[in-house]
Amino acid sequence: MYYINGEVEDMKQEKPVNEQLQENMQETVEKVQQEVTESRSPWYMVSRRAQFLIVAYLIIFAAFSLLAWFVHVHPILSVDVTITKEFQENKNPILNGLMIAVSFLGNQPILFFALIILTALAFWVVRLRLEALFVVGLSIVSTVLNLLLKYIVSRPRPTANLVDVFQRATGQSFPSGHVMSYVAFWGLIFSLGLILFRRDRWWNYVLLIVPAFFVVMVGPSRIYLGDHWASDVLGGYMFGGLLLGLALWLYMFLKSRGILTPLLNNPKEHLFGSRSSSHNAHRSASS
């Protein structure tokens, strides 16, 4: 027993030079975790808000299948052409730059995926680990389903003989991939900010304003740039919202029953707990 303590003492004496830096980083992380914990809403408020959002999403986006069938049968709609021309009627450099900037992330899949991973890591660090999994998981599911829907509907994109096309995109048109991916990522961030936190910190408002801006503006930007028809954008909002609603329902189901939460918060304890307990019991018996 003395020999073991001796080894421990030797290890304590061999501390790394950057130990102070590590301690400062740990203190910073703990302060951020405490800040997030203090801003959390009571559980009954979380449940009530989430249920309202889920019902609203399901009602609003119930007509998606009908729209998908209609644009499959009628790929070019006069109303779509009219709407796009109205959007493009007052083109100017400032508006061009704004619309291109809004769509930029969707045009850079690697950069967008990096942002998703960094956001998930931020949630993980502040002990919102189930939320971190949903940030990554919902974005992946949205991308896969968007590709599948585009293949099924097989609607061509707008062409230069009908409207102005600023950036020629490839692939099929319905539903808009940009809109679906933005609703999946930014919409989830907005929803988590709305149902998890009280509005008593400045960053609570950032979690609402920035995601809301991208979700609202991505649709008009796709029409303005001539990459999608208005019905493509509407379909993207519909199906993206439906996915978001289902994801929130699943999230609340897992959260309310504590499923995965203990494992995610204390992975070592749950994966190696029984082994550690038996080892400690053996050491106590030996002593």
TrEMBL record:
The chain crosses the membrane at residues 50-71, 98-125, 132-153, 179-197, 204-225, 237-254. The keyword Aminoacyl-tRNA synthetase does not apply. This is Phosphatidic acid phosphatase type 2/haloperoxidase domain-containing protein. It holds the Pfam family PAP2. Keywords: Membrane, Transmembrane, Transmembrane helix. InterPro entries: PAP2/HPO, PAP2/HPO_sf. SUPFAM superfamilies: Acid phosphatase/Vanadium-dependent haloperoxidase. It comes from the Bacteria. The keyword Zinc does not apply. Residues 131-248 form the Phosphatidic acid phosphatase type 2/haloperoxidase domain.
